[in-house]
Each structure stands twice: as structure tokens, then as C-alpha cells.
Amino acid sequence: MMPKLGVSTKIFSRKHWFDDMQGYPVECIEINTRTNLFWFVDDRIEKIRPKYERFNLSMHSGISMPFRGNEQFTKMKLELLRSEIIACSMIGAKELIFHLHHDKLSENEAVRIREIIDFAKSKGVDMVYESNGVCVAEIALDFLKRFPDVGYNLDLGHLNNGHGRGMLGCPIDEFLKDLKDRTVYIHAHGNNGKKDQHLALRKGTLDWKHVFDVLDMSNVRKVISETNDKEDAEMNLEDLNEYFGQDGLKSI
Questions:
Q1: In a domain, 252, yes or no
Q2: What is the distance between the alpha carbons of residues 24 and 60, in angstroms, rounded to a whole number?
Q3: pTM of the model
Q4: DSSP states along 29-80
Q5: Structural domain includes residue 55
Q6: What pLDDT score does 250 carry?
Q7: DSSP-derived 3-state class of residue 186
Q8: pLDDT for 55-88, tens place per residue?
Q9: Which terminus of the chain has a lower count of CB atoms within 10 Å, N or C?
């Protein structure tokens, strides 16, 4: 089965993204709370419901590195994660994409993340783990081993950075084969293998089609174009539709 295709709200205006996405010819929208304003207010969420209810939604967490800094910061970030989970449940977002820090979790950190994941399950939301801007295979695979019920978001730009900067730690194909059964979600964007540029796939140096060929795409629910502008998003959607044998998007 072909994954569902969509875009990140990064390509829309910061404040009026829910208006900008109206009529955009994709099934899926990923709300990025880092780049777009999301009001964590009950009546505001209800007010814009007609604007988003036709889309298959997911959310990208605005929280990063929850365990860096003092304990009060950690408590705040974990509570914000819970708030995002509640928001996902309210708007019907099926997945919450989240990052951690650049190191393996300590035992205490793993216990606290386990509580967050279980809380998400109780709200009908799937937490999907994503490596940071430079993917390190050992860290990603350690997390997935410790949390066998959590899916992986393979970010193609972060994968390319890990490989291009010599930090992935193994050949790309070896990494892909280790996580092919766990990859349920993909962020599609390109770069030069050094910086997280969020360009169109065709502008990057990664052979993304080969990556897709190695993965088990039947496990992948969504492929989200995560570019910084609409022009690159349109290139991605054209290329992705071509790869999956679709007719393409005629009304962009």
C-alpha cells in the first residue's frame, strides 16, 4: 500500500497556516509547533476545527532535548509534551513526532519517557521518534531497542547529514536494514550532507529513491514533505507521486 503524502505547515504562514492550507491538494498535514503558531486554548482549537477536520493530521513537537538543563526545565518540557499529546487527541492528530537529545537515554530518562509514551497511548496518539539533525545510528537503534512499541520517523535530511559528516557510524544500507521494520513515517527533504537545509529532494545529494527501495514501504504510513517553502514542496510532491506511480497533483 502506498504511504499517504502530505506537507509540513512550515511552508505556510506562521500565524494563519490553517487558512493557507485550505485547498492544498494533499491528504496529510503535519502541524509544526516550532515554526507555526498553535494556540493551546480549548475554545481556539474548537474554533478552527472546520479548517483542519478534512485532513489526516499529525503534529511535530516543539519540545527538544527535554533532559538538558536543570530539573525544573525538564519537568516543564515533559508537561509540555503531555499538553501536545492532549492537543493531538483533541484535533484528531494520529501521530506526535518527537526528538530527544544527542546521547543515549539514562535509565531514569527512559522511565520518564516511558510514562509519556504510555500517556500518549491512553489518548490514542502514537509517539514517533525522530533522530536529531545529524543522525547517529547507534543512538537511534538503542532507543528503538528499548522501546519496541514506538515507531521511527526516518528524516532523509538528517540521514544524509549523518552520512555526509561521517557521524552515522555505519553504511546507510546497513542502518536502513536495521530499522526497516520500525520506520512508520518519513520526513522528505534534501540537503548537501552538511547542513539541515530543508530543500527539495532533487536539490540534495542523497539517493532517496534507493533509500525507499531498501525500506519496507508497506510499513510507512506517511511521507511528509518537510521543506522551507512551497516551491520545494511542490517539487517533492511531484517526485514522490512519480516514484509511487501516481498521476501527480494537478491543482497546485
A1: no
A2: 19
A3: 0.95
A4: EEEETTTS-----HHHHHHTHHHHTTSEEEEE-S---TTSS-HHHHHHHHHH
A5: yes
A6: 37
A7: strand
A8: 999 999 999 899 988 999 999 999 999 999 999 9
A9: N
